[in-house]
From TrEMBL:
Protein's name according to its UniProt entry: Extracellular solute-binding protein
Protein family according to the UniProt entry: Belongs to the bacterial solute-binding protein 1 family.
SUPFAM superfamilies, per database record: Periplasmic binding protein-like II (SSF53850)
Pfam short name (any one): SBP_bac_8
Taxonomic lineage: Bacteria, Bacillati, Actinomycetota, Actinomycetes, Micromonosporales
Keyword vocabulary terms for this entry: Signal, Transport
Amino acid sequence: MTHLISTGMSRRQAIQLGLGAGLTVALTACGEDGTPTSASGTSLGGASLTGLMRASFIPAIHELQQKQAATWAEAHDGTVELTFAKEWREQIAAVVESRAGEDLGELFANQAHIYADRLVDVTELCESIGDRNGGWYDVAKEACVVDGRWRAIPRAYTAHVMNWRTDLFGQVGFTRFPSTWTELVEAATRLRDAKLPRVALTMSQAGPNDSASVAYSLLWSYGATEVEADGKTVAINSSQTREAVKLMQELAAVSAPEISSYDEGGNNTSFLAGKIAVTQNATSIWYTAQKQAPDIAKNMSHARYPRGPVGHQQLVEMNSLAIFAHSKRVEPAKAFYRYLMESEQLTALAEAALTYYTPLLKGYDDLRSMPWNSEPKLDGLRGLAAGGHMPGWPGPASRQSAQAYNNQTVVNMFARVISGKASAEESIRTAEDELKKVYEG
């Protein structure tokens, strides 16, 4: 996921991990008379609760979470320190490995499976939240339930979509976004031939999250998978994979050449500068465009990823909340998360985030205040998680599928081919070898 702003690590974590200090959000409060105001077991008693969170480039998201944490801290006699970092995943890995540092962490994708034995069991809390809000989407359970126990709370997912220029596509005869991948190749060809800004879907190791969103989604929509449903048998070397790679080759041939070198911010910058006609991303490009490039914002919209031979399939970019097992403040941490997942707080986050934080609770789909119900440019994003999958699908989310994602095996399979570093057959065989080391080794 692209980040245009970020904050660094807390001073405490910088000292513990030997990394440079950055900006920490410290939120301090207590009861009016200086005594605990919370229920038994959840008062901080003047202590600090610390968390390492995902950075967003929508400032309102940080500001809102700061206010929410301050409100909770005021009732629980302590401080809450939330650090928002662009490299939050790497920093969380360091905290987990050292078994020291923050009490809380915002996990990504399948990380609950990687770190399961070092996370607090939050089953009771998750089941209670689900019961009150219409139940969880299946993909939320896939991401956070390990061996029958919830190891993280599925906070939300980032709805990846096609951010596209309606005016440019209109000039080449498309009044709606292409509904299939082959139709997208046709549109990309027309844009190139008309010498207009081109299609530019990131497929680069330097832009791992944006690239993975397209790579997995395209692969699945052609009926290809990295592993069988048993979660053990590697299946990437197939005719379906060859068809998906061929489609990507055809699309890349008529796309902007930068697609094989974009980092997580490069496609955003190009889109906002009017240099490209479409790219995959969260709706955060639109948020930024309204402030920095209003003419672009006026002439853009959002669409689900195209369909393949087996329909529309999509990787879900998950954000979940976990408590590290080394924390000395487990009960206050659970109370804080319970508060964040209450309707008032979660609704406010979803409204501010414009689908960057989309709840994984079914009860939110029909709320009139949700972005997909209140903004016509987002109306196609309702219930996007219903057809979504975690890395490793159709196998179960697992430590192995998380490792394959972190290795960028599927992304690199496509990237090697479109950059000319390997033929399709060579790249597929390389991916197969890498996956066998993870799943079968």
